[in-house]
Amino acid sequence: MIIRRQLSRAVPQFTPALAHASPSKYRPQLPTMQLAHPRFRGDKKKKKDTPSSAASRQSDIQAQQARTKLQEREERRRELKRRTDRERTEARNTKITPMLMDIETAARYLKAAEVGRPEKTATITITLKLALPLHFQSLRGTVRLPKLPQAERVAVFTENPEIAEAALTAGATFAGGDELVNQVKNGEVTFEKSFATPGALPLLRGVQRLLGPKGLMPSERRGTVADDVVGLLETSHGALDFRTRGKILTAVIARTSFTPTEIEKNVAAFMTGFRKAIKNSTSRQAPLVSEIILSSTFGPGVMVLA
Hints:
By secondary structure, the protein is of the alpha/beta class. It has helices at residues 2-19, 51-92, 103-113, 161-170, 178-185, 208-211, 229-235, 260-279; strands at 123-131, 140-144, 154-157, 174-176, 193-196, 239-243, 248-255, 288-296, 301-303. A 4-stranded antiparallel beta sheet has the order 7-1-8-9. Strands 4-3-5 form a 3-stranded parallel beta sheet, with helices on both faces. The chain has a two-stranded antiparallel sheet with strand order 2-6. The longest helix is centred in the N-terminal third of the chain and has 42 residues, at 51-92.
């Protein structure tokens, strides 16, 4: 009884104290946390690249590179066009240049420069500097000179012994089939012109890489393949083949032993044939001749008017 009475007395005394106590008095105070660098509203975390975004960025880079290459290509094309127009303008005004000689005077200078040297080894070469339009293909043709500078060596490829014998009689230097092909392959024979019959074309496959770069490979397009090779030999006598190499055309047209008149006739015939080839070209803009230079083996180069 005594214990219960003490508890009953203690409870009313303790209960009001808890009832009137402030809630915050016994609530644990949490420390306030402050960020050293507060995050702004616009500062967002960068998302990791997904495969689709990486592919799109790679395609954008490739597109930019393609645009840059296209701009560079257009700039090079414009620069090339400006340079070509400038060269063609200078070519039209070449005849106004006072440093020009007539062909006869230039031939006398070149013959004087070769005094004391063997006449058989000294030749006179004509060089043409051309002002070509854009995307112009190489120009080639044949010119018939009044007097050839040297005897040409002609090869005829045929599998028929009778045709080979007739070609040698008509003026060919070499004629034959497999034996002649093997000699060409081994470098035993050299020539400046070649003709062939249609049946001998399969024999030339082994030397096509040797004759092709030199312009000596017979072909139907150039008219050097026919059944009547004897007729080709007769029509090609005195003819000189030419081909442009870039903006330069070089051809041997005379020897220093020729007279100035013979040199002048050869130059005139060469320029006539060359201008005819220009006229027959399929280009929209024809090439212009900016300079004509005559030179000898050991002599200087002289600009001439032809």
